[in-house]
């Protein structure tokens, strides 16, 4: 038994020594839920991480040609696996900053027990929980994806601006549905709207007619539906249209699926609108999309642009600080300088030259303008869509 | 490379091993000594974690709390809450044999998971509870980790010695008698359901203690942290591998499984990138394979149960495979 323990200890040390990047190179963590609940998103998001790392290294690397080393780690979308993975990334691979994790619960656990105490910057490209805003993080936790809180607020303001003042609110009973519905209701009521009826519903039930009948009794003719368009949201929408419970339907981004159009038919969906976060239509996004596509990635996959931006921003901050991890968080806020010269995704060599010359830069992110607020959050951009033929058509920007 | 920073990793490993050690001893009390198949470890772990979180965290909008009690009170509360949760479960199903308890305990753990997810006034739903105090949390990272390791090891040692003492006492011998031959024990006048309930509650309380330790380590609890895939099955594998019925054995099991679970990734990361990515999926498979091999080649575990007094172990020192699946013959189901 003693031999086994000794053997294991030496194995850990040996692996640890081998896993640490060579002195000159700079390591960053590329953390994400490769297994677990987000496994379906993982291939493209990981590709996007690696794509950013490759661009940096192809165009001169960090400082005097040191390589940026991406240390891939699996958080399993589970707090314990995530803490385990990030402890290794921070202490064994000794990274100066990290992109990820993705799941909000893991971000919270990892930030509290590893990265904040160890003073390492974390940028999540997918954790949308409002709890992340509230973290006491010594300015070490950032995200390139907007909090759920924002979407509810902009949706409320948009509906009021379009003259809808009375709605019924139906949402799926999980953190996404409830978070968005609460944020919506708070803003809608505060700005003078009325929520005539409100009900949470469980996922995957066969029928929601009784819930809908209850909601319709409130007297509103608009239903705000926060759900997923390929599961229960589809059932709710179909049954409501069949029975003519409401006249107008407004969904969150989860409802923006082609499954709704295929099943219900576009002619029945003339009064169906969805709000969705959009990467602000920009040259940056196009530059990223074509580059990522030629590197074998799918630019339309979920969270790929935010993943790319997380790594690219981290690299820029490292370049600016020379890899001093205590200064990275301050540097992250200097990367979107109104007076600075624009940097597109992929323009690493240009950014490197500007930083070396001591000039300010303004990074135009693939996912939008990434000006972090005091909590390390970004506001994000949203647009309202409606059904046209087999697809969704842009109606208006939402502010 | 900074070797001092590198040391943080084994320290972290040991902290987790001590938490899981506490869980394995708890399960050993139930399964190793009393033969109770509890497949709901994650449920009691969750009750402990959330109780301590609610008792010690500051006030938050939308859920009860704001008690801001000291951490030791939270830990005691966690154990008490588990006693309260375990009592009705045990009362209802301990009259049955192991398979029934297994089914009910899975159900209870699942019910607890759903309560945690949906009762927002209590647990804040899937957003979880944050700002939980951590003992020595104000120290710098490395010192704070070492201090926490000291605390968790101390708790584990206390648990180990108290449980060992309990199991060497007449109570422990009676539990084994009930496990190995219930009918005989009953004929000797032992109150079997009551004794089983005692073991079940003791084990559950210790699981709650482990949950409290975990929550004060990470300072945050969300429903994904109580995934039965990790908290229940990993603990079972640790107990079976180490040797059910032997507290030192199950601690060795916790050590080996957690080191394999965690450190194997460092080894696979040395492989080429795309293979290393695939290897992440293989971890669970590796642990499962190890379990198969152990069950096939050494069903009594690495350190088997020691029966009898120190002097008279001899042939009895190694129990038959029945210790792993106790007393199927005397089933009353």
From TrEMBL, chain B:
Recorded superkingdom: Bacteria
Positions of region (Disordered): 308-333
Organism, scientific name: Labrys monachus
Record's subcellular location: Cell membrane
Residues that span the membrane, as ranges: 6-29, 36-55, 67-87, 146-163, 199-219, 225-243, 250-268
Name of the protein in its database record: Branched-chain amino acid transport system permease protein
Pfam families tied to this protein: BPD_transp_2
Its membrane topology: Multi-pass membrane protein
Protein keywords: Cell membrane, Membrane, Transmembrane, Transmembrane helix
Record keyword Cell membrane present: yes
């Amino acid at each position: 038994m003693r031999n086994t323990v000794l053997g294991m200890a030496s194995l850990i040390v040996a692996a640890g020594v081998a896993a640490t990047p060579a002195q000159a190179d700079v390591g960053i963590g590329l953390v994400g839920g490769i297994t677990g609940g987000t496994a379906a998103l993982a291939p493209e998001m990981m590709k996007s991480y690696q794509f950013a790392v490759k661009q940096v290294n192809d165009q001169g690397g960090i400082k005097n040609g040191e390589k940026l080393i991406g240390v891939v780690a699996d958080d399993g979308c589970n707090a314990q696996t995530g803490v385990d993975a990030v402890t290794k990334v921070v202490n064994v691979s000794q990274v100066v900053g990290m992109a990820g994790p993705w799941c909000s619960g893991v971000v919270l656990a990892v930030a509290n027990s590893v990265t904040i105490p160890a003073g390492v910057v974390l940028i999540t490209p997918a954790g949308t929980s409002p709890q992340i805003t509230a973290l006491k993080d010594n300015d070490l936790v950032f995200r390139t994806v907007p909090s759920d809180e924002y979407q509810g607020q902009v949706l409320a303001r948009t509906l009021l601006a379009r003259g809808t003042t009375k709605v019924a609110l139906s949402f799926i009973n999980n953190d996404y549905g409830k978070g968005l519905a609460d944020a919506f209701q708070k803003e809608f009521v505060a700005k003078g709207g009325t929520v005539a009826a409100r009900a949470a519903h469980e996922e995957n039930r066969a029928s929601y007619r009784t819930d809908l009948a209850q909601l319709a009794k409130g007297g509103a003719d608009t239903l705000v539906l926060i759900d997923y368009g390929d599961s229960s949201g589809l059932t709710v929408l179909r049954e409501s249209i069949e029975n003519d419970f409401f006249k107008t339907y407004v969904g969150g981004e989860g409802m923006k699926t082609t499954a709704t159009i295929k099943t219900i038919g576009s002619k029945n969906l003339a009064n169906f609108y969805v709000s969705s976060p959009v990467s602000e239509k920009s040259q940056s996004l196009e530059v990223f999309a074509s580059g990522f596509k030629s590197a074998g990635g799918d630019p339309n996959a979920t969270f790929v642009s935010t993943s790319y931006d997380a790594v690219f921003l981290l690299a820029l901050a490292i370049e600016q600080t020379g890899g001093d991890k205590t200064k990275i968080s301050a540097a992250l806020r200097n990367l979107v300088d109104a007076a600075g010269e624009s940097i597109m995704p992929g323009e690493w060599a240009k950014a490197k030259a500007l930083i070396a010359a001591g000039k300010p830069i303004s990074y135009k992110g693939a996912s939008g303008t990434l000006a972090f607020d005091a909590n390390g959050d970004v506001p994000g951009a949203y647009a309202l869509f409606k059904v046209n033929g087999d697809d969704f058509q842009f109606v208006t920007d939402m502010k | 490379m900074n070797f001092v920073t590198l040391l943080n990793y084994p320290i972290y490993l040991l902290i987790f091993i001590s938490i899981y050690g506490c869980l394995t001893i708890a399960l050993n009390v139930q399964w190793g000594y009393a033969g109770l198949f509890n497949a709901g470890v994650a449920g009691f772990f969750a009750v402990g974690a959330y109780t301590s979180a609610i008792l010690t965290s500051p006030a938050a909008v939308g859920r009860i709390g704001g008690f801001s009690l000291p951490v030791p009170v939270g830990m005691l509360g966690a154990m008490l809450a588990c006693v309260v949760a375990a009592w009705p479960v045990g009362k209802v199903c301990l009259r049955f044999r192991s398979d029934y308890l297994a089914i009910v305990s899975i159900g209870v753990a699942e019910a607890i998971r759903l309560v945690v997810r949906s009762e927002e006034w209590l647990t804040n739903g899937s957003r979880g509870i944050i700002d939980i105090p951590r003992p020595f949390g104000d120290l710098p990272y490395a010192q704070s980790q070492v201090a926490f390791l000291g605390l968790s090891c101390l708790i584990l040692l206390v648990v180990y010695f108290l449980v060992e003492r309990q199991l060497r006492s007449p109570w422990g011998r009676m539990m084994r008698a009930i496990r190995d031959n219930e009918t005989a024990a009953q004929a000797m006048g032992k109150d079997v359901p009551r004794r089983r309930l005692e073991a079940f509650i003791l084990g559950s309380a210790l699981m709650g203690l482990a949950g409290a330790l975990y929550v004060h380590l990470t300072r945050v609890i969300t429903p994904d942290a109580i995934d039965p895939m990790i908290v229940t099955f990993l603990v079972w594998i640790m107990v079976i591998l180490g040797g059910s019925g032997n507290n030192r054995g199950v601690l060795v099991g916790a050590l080996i499984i957690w080191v394999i679970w965690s450190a194997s990734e460092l080894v696979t990361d040395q492989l080429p990138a795309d293979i290393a990515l695939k290897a992440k999926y293989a971890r669970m498979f590796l642990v499962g394979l190890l379990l198969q091999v152990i069950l096939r080649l050494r069903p009594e575990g690495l350190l088997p149960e020691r029966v009898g007094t120190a002097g008279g172990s001899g042939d009895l020192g190694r129990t038959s495979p029945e210790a792993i699946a106790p007393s199927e013959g005397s089933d009353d189901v």
